[in-house]
Amino acid sequence: MAVYVDDIYKHPIGQYGRMKMSHLIADTREELLAMVDKIGVQRKWIQSFDSPREHFDIAMAKRELAIKHVAIEISYRDMAEKTRTRTYEGKTQIY
């Protein structure tokens, strides 16, 4: 079981003006919520709730905190593949 953070901030899609973002996912919702609690992200900002695409968009400062709390750094492509093929909370992604 693990939490992952990607490097989408390196791509135009992950940049909003001066703000750079990353995706944060986990193998389970419990792990994902535990991580956002540790790094100070509000649970209400969850994206694609209750689906295999469930994640948080986090800013660079939160990304660094997640890494300090042992989130595994992966590429944007790896994140897309992991999301595309994963089963999460008993739900299978349909792509």
H and E string: EEEHEHEHEE
Structural class call reads alpha+beta
Q: What overall form do the CA principal axes indicate?
A: globular
Overall pLDDT score: 89
**Radius of gyration, whole Å:** 12 Å
State the distance separating the first and last CA atoms.
Answer: 23 Å
Total separate domains: 1
How big a fraction of the residues is strand?
Answer: 15-25%
Largest sheet: 5 strands, mixed
Low-confidence stretches: none
Estimate the helix proportion, in percent: 25-40%
Count the E strands: 7
Question: Helical region count?
Answer: 3
Q: How is this fold's topology laid out?
A:
Elements: E1 3-5, E2 15-16, E3 19-26, H1 29-39, E4 56-59, H2 60-68, E5 72-73, H3 76-85, E6 87-88, E7 91-92
Structural features, described:
With 95 residues, the chain is of the alpha+beta class. It starts with a strand and ends with a strand. It has helices at residues 29-39, 60-68, 76-85, and strands spanning 3-5, 15-16, 19-26, 56-59, 72-73, 87-88, 91-92. It contains 3 helices and 7 strands. Strand 6 and strand 7 form a beta hairpin. The protein has one domain (3-92). Strands 1, 2, 3, 4 and 5 form a 5-stranded mixed β-sheet that branches. It is globular.
